[in-house]
Amino acid sequence: MFKKGILLLAILVWSLALAACGSNGNRDTAASSPPASPPLSASASGESSGTPAGEALSGEITVWAHPYVSEEKASELKAFWNAVIQDYNAKYPNVKVKYEEIPWKEREQKILTAIASGTGPDVFYQIPDQVPQFANQGVLAPLDDYLADADLADFNEGALRAGNFGGKQYALPILQETQTLIYNADIVKAIGEDPAKLPTTWDEFNAWAEKAVSKGYYARDFAGAEACCNATLYPLLWQKGGDVLAEDGSVILDNEAGVATFQYIKDMYDKKWIPADSVSNKDQFPEFLSGKMMAIWGSGYTVNVLNEEKINYVIGEPLTDKVKATFGTVGMFVVSEKSKNKAAAAEFVKLLTNKENQEAFNKLTNYIPARKSAGSIHDGDEVMKKMTEIAAVSRPGIVSPVARTIMPKIQAEIAAMLEGAKTPQEAAGAAAQAVKDELAKL
């Protein structure tokens, strides 16, 4: 069974990358004001003059998406896309839809390179900290002109807002995802604690961590080499009451809360709460699967793997030091500014993100629908019900045109700190300066 878990490991890594970081390509990161509020007052249903008649649209569109499920469910995902395309062609029979699944790895660079060369997709997938970057580079087409007949009020407001930048709606969401600590219930019992009474504060978790280490377990994972702060630094920073950028766009990563968070990570490393390879390892899921680790940072997809592996687990609350917070992303579909068939592409995005398709997609992938009307699909599933509740305190990372490039720079400073080359204060200061340097490039 453990071998099967290892086979699923690569898929899990890229699934978490989908939610947390997207790809390993080079990215921008900048401070900008929060996205302006999108319009939420479109009509509830029905065709309107804003929607082209079926016969009026023709030509071809290319759709790029990713492997949102494990290999075991790949055929079901393919059936989902076939059904979506069939429904679209029933409405727009003169539009040919070419669908292609591309891997998570280096997807960002692949998309940008293809679009720049004129061979890119008309429709593709984005997460919140990519939208400002892509929009700022002129890669995305605003969808506002195509949304007159769209039921925007049915979307969860935060999810819809994630696709809005500079007052323009660039994306429609299909999924919400949240991440939190997931505990091995057997290890919790082994350290003398109750799986029904998990830690809710840093102090409580710290006490459990000491017990876990004393029993020969790691307390949790810390994938320091992933260069993805959404899964490492940011949740801890928010819980401490800090952030990378203030509301006015100034860099505050090295303020008191920031330095304290860097110190906490160093303490976890020095006390052996996290593995010694936390500087160089991109994924420590094997330690959790093999029963060496008390808690793993994961999502609904992690739950899928744990269910298949028959691991006895429990979902933890996001921890609180000063603030209760965690990372959670929004999965959205966008239209390329280079598309030669924007109207047809926009209509595909609208159909893809309607109630019925949100229900089918999120039921299959174990994510949370971005539409209120589809929210009941996980009724009866206590784990996903818990994940849905956690989504209420989830944040989508640093939403900025340059949010992507600062993450590897910040992680490099964390690595230097863990290796002993810098103090927490020095590392936080250097990370803050790296952010300022990226902002100065805008």
Portion in helices: 40-55%
Radius of gyration: 22 Å
Backbone shape:
globular
Q: How many runs of DSSP E, i.e. beta strands?
A: 12
**Secondary-structure class:** alpha+beta
Order of helices and strands: HEHEHEHHEEEEHHHHHEHEEHHEHEHH
Largest sheet features? 5 strands, mixed
Distance between the termini: 50 Å
Mean pLDDT: 88
Number of helices: 16
Classify the beta-strand content into a percent band: 5-15%
> Uncertain regions: pLDDT < 50 for 5+ in a row?
1-18, 22-49
What key attributes describe this structure?
442 residues; alpha+beta; five-stranded mixed sheet; three-stranded antiparallel sheet; 40% helix; globular; disordered N terminus
Topology of helices and strands:
Elements: H1 2-20, E1 59-65, H2 74-91, E2 95-101, H3 107-116, E3 123-126, H4 131-136, H5 157-161, E4 164-165, E5 168-169, E6 171-178, E7 180-184, H6 185-190, H7 202-214, H8 233-239, H9 256-270, H10 285-289, E8 295-298, H11 300-309, E9 313-315, E10 326-335, H12 342-352, H13 355-365, E11 368-369, H14 382-390, E12 394-395, H15 403-418, H16 424-440
Parallel strand pairs: 1-2, 10-12
Antiparallel strand pairs: 3-10, 4-5, 6-10, 6-11, 7-8, 7-9
Helix pairs in contact: 1-11, 2-12, 2-13, 9-16, 15-16
